[in-house]
Amino acid sequence: MLRTVFILLLLSSAYLSAQVSKDFCDYTSSENMLILSKTAEDKLASNSVRKISKTHDGYILIATYNGLSIYDGQEFINLNKENTKNLKSNSIRDFCYAKDSSIWLATQKGISLYKNFEVTRLKSLSELDEYSVQKIICDQNGTIWLGTLANGLFNYKDNKLTKIENLPGIEKSGISVLYNDPEGKVWVGTENEDLYCFENGEAQTILVPKNANGVFSALCDSEGIYYFGTRNGIYTLKNNKLTLLNKNINFINDIKEDKLGGVWFATNSGLFYFNKKLNSFMNFSKVKILNKQIVQSVYFDDENIMWVSTYRKGFIQIRTSPFANYPFKNSNINETPSSILTHSNGTIWVATDEESIYELKNGVYRKIKIKTNLEGARIKDLFQDKDGGIWVCTYGGLLHIKNGKETLIGGSEDFPDKTIRHILQDKDGNYWIGTRQSGIYKISPDYKVLERHNTDNDLSSNYVLSMTLHNDDLYVSTKGGIDIISNHKVIKHYDQNSGLAENLVFDLYIDKDDVLWAATIQGLSRIKNENITNYTESNGLIINKIFSVLEDNFGYMWLPTIKGLMRIEKKQLNDYAADSTIKIRCAFYNHDDGIYDAQYVGATHLLKSDDGKILFNTISGISILDPQLLNEQNSKPKILINRLTTEKNTYYNFDRVELLSGTKYVEFAYSYIDFINPGKATFRYKLIPFEEEWVKNKNERKIQYTNLSPGEYEFVIEAVPVLGKGKPIFSRIKFQMLPEFYQTLWFQFLVIFVFIALVVLIYMMRMRASRINQIKLENEIKERTKEITQQKEEIGQKNEEILLHQSQIEKAFVNLKLLSDLGREITSHLTLEEISSTVYQNVNSIMDSTIFGIGIYNTDSNEIEFNSSIFKGSVIPAFSIPVNKKDCLLNQCFVKGEEIVVNDAQKELSKDIISFPKTSSIQAISSLVVFPIKIENKTIGLITTQSYRKNAYSDYHFNMLSSLSVYVGIAIENSKTYKKINEQKNELLKVNAAKDKMFSLIGHDLRGPVGTIKSFLDLILENPEMAESGQTLVILKTMQQSLGSAYNLLDNLLLWARSQRGEIDFNPINFIITQPVDESINLIIETAKNKNIELVKEMNYSGNVYGDQVMITTVLRNLISNAIKFTPKEGKITIRTDLKVIEQEGVQIELSEISVIDTGIGISDEMIDRILKPTDTYSTLGTDKEQGSGLGINICMDFLNRHKRKLFIENNKEKQTDKEGSTFRFYLPIKSN
């Protein structure tokens, strides 16, 4: 979109006419003219514009070669033959205003009439439908004059079209000009040098020089002088003869006079201005935007705006701007301004970043010569003291210029700093100097240092940005806030902790009410009686970052930004400080409003001159704002509803609008007309009675409603201009939504009557039918009842199945979750302290880390554990946070698995949210970053760093902490792996120790029986006579007992070894429980007989069980052998089976209980614990001194574990019953699971 703003920089002030009243616009002034260009890229109908004028309701009407454009300052509405029925041609050649406010359009296909966005045609003008009408006017009598291209001249009055006859040359040439002068005369000119004057119905021929080559434009100015434009020069009329005024300006298309009496000529060579007092012409064709342009017409509206239409570049809008601009490039300067001084000699001095100083006088810059070599140092401030001396603040020192003498201060022992930013003079004649590196110096006129203020004596920062004196106190803005110096010391300090918008304060201003205003990087702060109010984008500002603040003479505050200037009425700011519900209206000015370069030079200050003008630096030079001119230039905007559209019709006349019944869609289109401050307003609307509250509108020009009910409505649109007093303006339209026939009252009564009649008729028919079908219905009801009952039973059964399946799914889900939790079990954090310390040291070296912590998720407790958190460099005690604690940000990070960044906790977080539980008694945190620690997309913990400062963490800090969190996750996972390896190692050591102990026991247990056998054999061999004696049987029985014990030991050892190597397969089957019981008793009954122990079977359950029959036989054999070992002679061992029903996970399961109950010596709880340890082998001597290895019980527990079952041991004596000894018990399922 071509929307380029140009500032007219004309030749010199020599062309200026007499002093201009504020009610008029001098379009020839040099610095403060604003030009706006609009073309087809901005939605103009065509770049070829014929004529421009303002309608009675305020729109700008534009005739083009591609239709008619209606412009409201922001948007175009285009009418052409494609979208407008009565517009037969897109080529609009001319138009005029009739007395009834209608606009007559001269087109290539006759005449059309325009009014309120509607175009009509008159049957009485149908004769002209095929004529190309070139010119049209309405004279003072209301007669319409029409000039055609090749069909002569016509006039139209009282619905009658009349052709003007008997004019020589009219028929042969196209009519090129029609003009009605102030005296009522009508002037007619042709392309072939014909010129006629009609007065009181009579035509007078005016002689035109032959070399004029046609007359194309005419004007009678306010002094009664006639001007005629031809192909070859400009003529004036004297004694009914044309006299040549200028032969060098040719092809004059239009002539207009402005309100100052200047005459403007639109030509094929551009735009020219004639100053009658100087009798001279000014050529505007050399201005960039008008260069080599064919200008078709000129128009001056009632707001002192000049509208220029061109042949190829659309139209141009020219008006006075309150901004006077003095760009450096006009003086061939390629530098950036940094400071402005209004010199006592009436000129303006401008310093630059490139070590230069220029004097601006009469719009021209002249360089001030400086003898001192500043070595390329940037100039930051210019100041003129009471004695007329000039002080130049640079980054190469402080230069004092007086009476031609130059003195450079800085770099000395008592004044070492050379980076000077600002200087002030107090009432005693001393100077306050602000620096970039060492704070503030106070020096005497003879350069002696009187005071020094820096961070060593309470100054907030050594980087001084601005200073101002008020009531003998020095107010200072720095990178650390605001300081007030009084009586040689800092007495007050304001910063973010005090409520300031930001610590970086560019400028200060104190108004007459002692209110302190601060321009900060994050908005405007107001300080009054220690109360601070901040103004930002959230409550009215357009841009937060402002570089200066200054009040004009009309009560408005000016705030410069990098994109333009903001203006806010100070009263609104004060009112908002008292009542925050008040809305702040902020106006914004940029290049569209006349600023040559809207980019303000940062960290520089606004300056107000003695006459109330405001001077400011831009990247391209300096600009001067005239607030008085701005206030006087306020426009009178209008808001108009221009059409109402439905899916069936479009309405432009709103006298009485009745929308057809069945209308589903209603659209209102409105225009906000303002050519000085276009679009600078807020809008809201409502449809009464459909809406009770106003609806805010974001500058959308079309508002739609659908499915409105029949009734009376009123649509109201309100606009509140941002500038001026902000008084709202309205536009409204009333309309009626007609009902459909079925929505009318008579139709509703008819429907009710018909309905009642039908109900009565149906009732009578139903009663008759019910008597006939009653029996049949009863039978059907019985049948249906039976079917429904059956269906209900089936549905109940299905519901039970669904509930069963749901229960199974829920159980499966719980099991899966349990397995998942076990799989994520967190191991011991043996090296977490070292990890946390290392990460903290790295984080704290690159960012403010007042609080630092690493939390590890513990799946068992469902908590995040913080074992090594650090506060202000010290480790704090360990603590943990439940994951379901919703008021802590750390939990939110862990649960969501997403990072959390907060730059201003007081604003961004609820008061109920805590950032770090262990700091609740410490000052509230302002900034924090929390990152989840993930391994393979699984969150295992989190890492956080937190600060008391707002906006403490930048993108760099964010990215660094993100990377560190990955390394922390890897380190923690490695720590877990390391711990797991150590646990496995310790477990292996325990197993090896148990194995060694077991082998020792086995060796000891085998040594006894084998030794006994060896001793008896040695005795028999040494005493052969004993073999025949009666002692032989006793010896053999003893040997048999020893061999049995050794055999059992070796058998158990073989089973244990095969089990440990995984050589014993697990083959579960269904078998009768009595089989392994009988087999075990048969294998061991002889051993029991040796001790006269009774073996008893109590088979209360003798059915099937499910398991490995071989393993169960081995378990029973070892349990019975163990019982025999610890049961004294004459004792009793009972092998009992029972059927038990237990509930497991909500399901009842049938199990067979197998018990081995002895009447032996019993067993203590301590011995039970030792026996049941899988890594220990425990053995004692039996009641008959039998040896044992403890392997039997280990084998039993191992085989039962293969069945996912346990061995239970009870001491019968501790039950205080008549039974003695111990009970060994285990359970088997009666069927496969």
Sequence-ordered SSE layout with sheet pairings:
Elements: E1 5-7, E2 33-38, E3 49-54, E4 60-64, E5 67-71, E6 76-79, E7 92-97, E8 103-107, E9 110-115, E10 118-120, E11 133-138, E12 144-148, E13 153-157, E14 160-164, E15 175-180, E16 186-190, E17 195-199, E18 202-205, E19 215-220, E20 226-230, E21 233-238, E22 241-246, E23 252-257, E24 263-267, E25 270-275, E26 280-283, E27 295-300, E28 306-310, E29 315-320, E30 323-327, E31 337-342, E32 348-352, E33 357-361, E34 364-367, E35 379-384, E36 390-394, E37 397-402, E38 405-409, E39 420-425, E40 431-435, E41 440-443, E42 449-453, E43 464-470, E44 473-478, E45 481-486, E46 489-494, E47 505-510, E48 516-520, E49 523-528, E50 531-535, E51 550-551, E52 556-561, E53 564-569, H1 570-578, E54 586-589, E55 607-608, E56 614-618, E57 621-625, H2 627-632, E58 638-646, E59 650-651, E60 657-659, E61 665-673, E62 681-688, E63 695-697, E64 702-706, E65 711-721, E66 729-737, H3 745-823, H4 832-846, E67 851-858, E68 863-866, E69 870-871, E70 874-875, E71 879-882, H5 889-896, E72 900-902, H6 905-908, E73 927-935, E74 938-947, ...
Parallel strand pairs: 60-66, 76-78
Antiparallel strand pairs: 1-2, 2-29, 3-4, 4-5, 5-6, 7-8, 8-9, 9-10, 11-12, 12-13, 13-14, 15-16, 16-17, 17-18, 19-20, 20-21, 21-22, 23-24, 24-25, 25-26, 27-28, 28-29, 30-57, 31-32, 32-33, 33-34, 35-36, 36-37, 37-38, 39-40, 40-41, 41-42, 43-44, 44-45, 45-46, 47-48, 48-49, 49-50, 51-52, 52-53, ...
